[in-house]
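Structure in, sequence out. Go:
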């Protein structure tokens, strides 16, 4: 092993110091030739005859130097460096061709890279939550009234939380704005209201403090609030003592109980504060659909199994909560409320995946056209250099 390693290291050293070592070998050959010439001149030969005799005895110096180089060098590195140097010389000799080629490829590669970055971030990469492949959006449909994108509600949340067989956890959330007036100038901020299960369901732990508890989520409980990392930095300067302070949200005091990590972002919501949703069972109706629902499936549960479980719970929902005033139970039954569950990532993307894949294909065709144009330019340039290339081949070039 050690001899092989030393041989590799020696070749790497030669590659880095090739010019110096090559010069040393040239000087060594010249010294040997001078000694032979001196020897033959002492035997009575003329200087010209001595040079001819010395070269005949010594052999082809150039070939000997090439053999030394091949024995000590790394073949593919040398070939690559030769090709790169030759290509750079040719490009430098034709600035118009070089500029056209570089711009054509830059446009094609740049556009393809930009679109692929979007496709990768939106379609390929998973959601930034642990085990995000088990997160689903609680979407419903009502074919009887041609509705296929119905959200969730407190009644649905309570029913699914208490009667499901396929969910590890269920949460309800809303996105809106809130007025903050306690510190500095009053401002309106984006707010995320959620039941206490949301952050644990997403496997999100606060940077400091704690998440909402079941007590925080009870109607009439003292207000609590969790700050986003950005809002914490902007409004409180990143002070660790912020936990326990009071923030007035929509005119009501809220105790700050935690700060979310820097990387937290829930779907497309730019929420700066989180407050408990505090759903009120006494004010829950069917088929009110004012909120958004999310659930985490149990291990091994499929989306079809979850849909069947939701379909099983719809009658329980109808029996557990009153009908919205102004509707009859018969009218609600005719809506044919049912599950339209989907993976949470698919719910975020919606129809955007088809658009992005079409755009990716279009940009890919643009890259192919750019490469074809460059190939045509290269063929035309090669044809113009026909005589030069023929001479190179005649001299033994590859």
């Amino acid at each position: 092993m050690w001899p092989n390693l030393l041989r590799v290291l020696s070749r790497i050293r030669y590659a880095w110091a090739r010019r110096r070592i090559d010069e040393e070998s040239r000087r060594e050959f010249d010294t040997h030739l001078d000694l032979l010439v001196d020897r033959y001149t002492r035997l009575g030969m003329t200087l010209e005859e001595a040079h001819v005799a010395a070269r005949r005895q010594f052999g082809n110096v150039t070939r000997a130097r090439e053999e030394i180089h091949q024995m000590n060098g790394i073949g593919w590195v040398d070939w690559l460096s030769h090709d790169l140097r030759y290509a750079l010389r040719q490009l430098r000799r034709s600035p118009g061709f070089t500029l056209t080629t570089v711009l054509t490829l830059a446009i094609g590669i740049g556009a393809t890279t930009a679109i692929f970055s979007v496709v990768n971030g939106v379609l390929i990469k998973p959601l930034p939550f642990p085990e995000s492949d088990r997160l689903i959006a609680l979407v419903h449909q009502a074919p009887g009234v041609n509705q296929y994108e119905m959200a969730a509600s407190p009644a649905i949340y309570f029913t699914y939380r208490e009667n499901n067989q396929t969910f590890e956890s269920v949460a309800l959330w809303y996105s809106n704005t809130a007025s903050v007036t306690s510190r500095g100038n009053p401002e309106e901020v984006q707010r995320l209201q959620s039941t206490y299960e949301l952050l644990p369901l997403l496997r999100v732990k606060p940077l400091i403090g704690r998440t909402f508890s079941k007590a925080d989520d009870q109607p009439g409980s003292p207000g609590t609030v969790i700050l986003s990392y950005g809002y914490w930095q902007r409004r409180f300067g990143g002070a660790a003592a912020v936990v326990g302070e009071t923030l007035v949200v929509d005119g009501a005091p809220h105790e700050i109980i935690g700060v979310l990590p820097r990387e937290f972002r829930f779907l497309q919501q730019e929420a700066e504060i989180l407050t408990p949703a505090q759903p009120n069972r006494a004010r829950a109706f069917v088929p009110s659909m004012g909120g958004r629902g999310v659930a985490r499936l149990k291990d091994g549960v499929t989306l079809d199994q979850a849909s069947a479980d939701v379909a099983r719970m719809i009658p329980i929902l109808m029996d557990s909560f009153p009908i919205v005033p102004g509707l009859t139970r018969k009218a609600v039954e005719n809506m044919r409320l049912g599950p339209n569950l989907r993976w949470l990532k698919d719910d975020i993307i919606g129809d955007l995946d088809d658009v992005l894949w079409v755009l990716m294909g279009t940009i890919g065709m643009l890259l192919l056209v750019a490469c074809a144009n460059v190939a045509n330019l290269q063929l035309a340039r090669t044809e113009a250099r026909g005589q030069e290339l023929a001479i190179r081949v005649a001299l033994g070039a590859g």
